[in-house]
């Protein structure tokens, strides 16, 4: 019966011989801490199947979820930030941009694309939080403005997916100008009677909330997202009052009339496609 007897004492596998599971195959749900397998996550559209927590994802993932067969044409991919203020904080802004581009493989905190969603044309602009906190600088504003122009010229509905810490400090006033620019462009989109759906994801704050994110014909959010303008500490110190429970969650914001719907990411494509169908212009009678 030697087969169940440990014949050698001690652990004999050397560190070099140990087989490690490749990195990134398993992740922990940030909310319930249960292990999630990467392929399951993709299948479940990056929602924890234990607790329903919506894991933060970027434009690559949103595009793969929303565009039919992940087929789309990227728009205005070549736009990159300048450094008009020669800004330096802990490091030079130009160096920070080079590093962040290398680390994320992105050109800025937004990507735009045109493709089909359940067979209907749609332009999607989606922010990336990995790129300097999804901050809104001149490139973010310009890509949104040009995407809207594209939507108007081609009569294709526009979907904006926001995920942002607010305006980009390193571009100061140039960042703030994007609020007015994008809002004005959205007014033109509305005049052209082209639908605009805004999807707010975790987190949507600052100047983004105060401009294009809240201007949709329909404003939708993912469950549990942080949505607000200033952070809770700043507000508390300003109004000298305790804030209510659940303050600045999507659910709270919806209850107070700022959102139309909260939609689970697993049903997002179906819901968005049905809204597009409802908003589509009726073809004139032959
Ligand atoms: Zn979970």
Automatic annotation (TrEMBL):
GO terms for biological process: fatty acid biosynthetic process; malonyl-CoA biosynthetic process. The keyword Cell cycle does not apply. A zinc finger (C4-type) spans 29-51. Residues 25-286 form the CoA carboxyltransferase N-terminal domain. One of its GO terms (cellular component) is acetyl-CoA carboxylase complex. Its EC number is 2.1.3.15. Its cofactor is Zn(2+). InterPro entries: AcCoA_carboxyl_beta (IPR034733), Acetyl_CoA_COase_Trfase_b_su (IPR000438), ClpP/crotonase-like_dom_sf (IPR029045), COA_CT_N (IPR011762). Pfam families: Carboxyl_trans. It is found in: Cytoplasm. Its main location: cytoplasm. Keywords: ATP-binding, Cytoplasm, Fatty acid biosynthesis, Fatty acid metabolism, Ligase, Lipid biosynthesis, Lipid metabolism, Metal-binding, Nucleotide-binding, Transferase, Zinc, Zinc-finger. Belongs to the AccD/PCCB family. Component of the acetyl coenzyme A carboxylase (ACC) complex. Biotin carboxylase (BC) catalyzes the carboxylation of biotin on its carrier protein (BCCP) and then the CO(2) group is transferred by the transcarboxylase to acetyl-CoA to form malonyl-CoA. NCBIfam families: accD (TIGR00515). This is Acetyl-coenzyme A carboxylase carboxyl transferase subunit beta. It comes from Mucilaginibacter gilvus. The gene is accD.
């Amino acid at each position: 019966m030697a087969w169940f007897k440990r014949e050698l004492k001690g652990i004999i596998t050397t560190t070099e011989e140990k087989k490690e599971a490749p990195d990134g195959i398993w992740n922990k749900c940030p909310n319930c801490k249960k292990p999630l397998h990467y392929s399951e996550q993709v299948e479940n559209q990056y929602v924890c199947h234990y607790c329903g927590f919506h894991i933060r994802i970027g434009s690559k993932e949103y595009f793969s979820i929303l565009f039919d067969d992940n087929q789309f044409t990227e728009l205005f991919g070549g736009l990159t930030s300048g450094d008009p203020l020669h800004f330096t904080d802990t490091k030079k802004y130009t160096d920070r941009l080079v590093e962040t581009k290398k680390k994320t493989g992105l050109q800025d905190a937004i990507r735009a694309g045109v493709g089909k969603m359940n067979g209907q044309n749609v332009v999607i602009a989606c922010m990336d939080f990995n790129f300097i906190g999804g901050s809104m600088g001149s490139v973010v504003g310009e890509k949104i403005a040009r995407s809207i122009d594209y939507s108007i010229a081609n009569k294709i509905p526009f979907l904006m997916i926001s995920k942002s810490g607010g305006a980009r400090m390193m571009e100061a006033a140039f960042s703030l100008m994007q609020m007015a620019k994008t809002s004005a462009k959205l007014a033109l989109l509305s005049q052209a009677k082209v639908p605009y759906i805004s999807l707010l994801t975790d987190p949507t704050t600052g100047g983004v909330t105060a401009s294009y994110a809240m201007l949709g014909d329909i404003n939708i959010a993912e469950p549990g997202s942080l949505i607000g303008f200033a952070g809770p500490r700043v507000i508390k110190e300003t109004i000298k009052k305790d804030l209510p429970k659940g303050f600045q969650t999507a659910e709270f914001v919806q209850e107070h009339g700022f959102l139309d719907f909260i939609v689970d990411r697993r049903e997002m494509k179906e819901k968005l496609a049905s809204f597009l169908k409802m908003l589509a212009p009726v073809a004139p009678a032959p």
